[in-house]
Amino acid sequence: MSIFSSTCLTDPRFICHGFLLPILLLLLQISSQLGDCGTIVKYLPGFQGPLPFLLETGYIGVGENDDVQSFYYFIESENNPREDPLMLWLTGGPGCSAFSGLVYEIGPLAFQVDEYDGGLPSLVYKPNSWTKVSSIVFVDVPVNTGFSYARTEFASQRSDSLSVSQAHQFLRKWIMDHPEFLKNKVYIAGDSYSGMHVPIIADEISKANERGLQPWINLQGYLMGNPVINRNEKNYAIPFAHGMGLISDELYKSLQKHCKGEYVNVDMRNVLCSRDVNSFDEITSGIDSANILEPNCEFATQKPLESSWRRSLTDNYPAKFKDTHLRLPSRNCRTYGYLLSAYWANDNKVRNALNVRKGTKKKWKRCTKNMPYKYDISSNFPYQVNLSRKGYRSLIYSGDHDMIVPFLATQAWIRSLNYSIVDDWRPWYTNGQVAGYTRTYSNAMTFATVKGGGHTAPEYKPPECFHMYSRWISGGLFKKEKYR
Fold it and tell me: Closest Cα partner for 339 from 357, 353, 327?
């Protein structure tokens, strides 16, 4: 293995966040929980045999006096870690654990979805992992998400600007602790609500590099899946629903007439618009907005573990989810698999294996809904303009059956960047079949749809999204004649 536990303790050029090396070595002998460096995890409860990839977990202190302790899962590239890119992955929400992205989307582990019998859920190896071509750091952001925690009440504050700042600090400190990755190409990535933060983090890294802040990060670009850009995505959910045949021509025309394209911040004095929006909500209430092709399932769990929505971005829960007599979803429902992560992560054997600090997290939740959070960034559009001017690459992908952040919304803000088209709209292929459609722009931006994909596209279409990512990260384009 090329990465060792507590790497930062073994390289005299790097000191663990201000502590003297000899003192840390002594403390390490006393307690493995002291110090911010990671530990290699060779075995995980629920997985048969040793892990076939390198997993490191740990904490990095960020914020004032390191009072925010950010938990991470690092998986080294299964190909060529010294040459392959390094990705920082943020899961959306805000408030969803990075573990959700690891196990349900782009990582090499998945739960075996069997009927829960009270034991520990089983994990299996996933072949379409993005770690086949890159090393990935999955970090629990914001504070108190997943296994991250705050040492003080003040440090428990959460906001867009704090999430950006802490993710930036985290990455610089992580690279300082892992100097073998100083030369690797770096990408910032995430989906859903983390799309609000990803370009801003990349822009902050770029500016800090220009100022000479160390360590220098070899930033190359960013990736976003079905990203939230300005929280006005519902303005495109209604034309999307009409195009997909979910609402009638008459209702759509009435919505256009009375609301004039503004369906999010509806003036309550506009009675006719409010009426039409309520009609839309009622008509589509039986649809799974994350993927309109999927069954609309119950989203509950047995006590003492609480349920968690796919993304806390979707706070408009159907009435049946608020019933005090909730039922478990069917095993055939995708939501059933989400229950397994809570049963697994709240097991003491699992926490010990992951080196979670005792007493720091009473209950792990995949997504923490309704947490106090300050939405203090209205749009990341200016940051994307800055990145485009500097020539950074970007991949923007959309599961084309997502009604939470429809591809129409993503296409609209990409058009507003007003960059010329280099390669026009065309299909891209996987295994000889159309996997989606793509277009590239003069600002080094690639947009791609994932046919049949939902809000978290890699969750629904793992092979297709892996092929999409591996081609793009290697510098390739989605050319029909090459990939058909």
Answer: 327
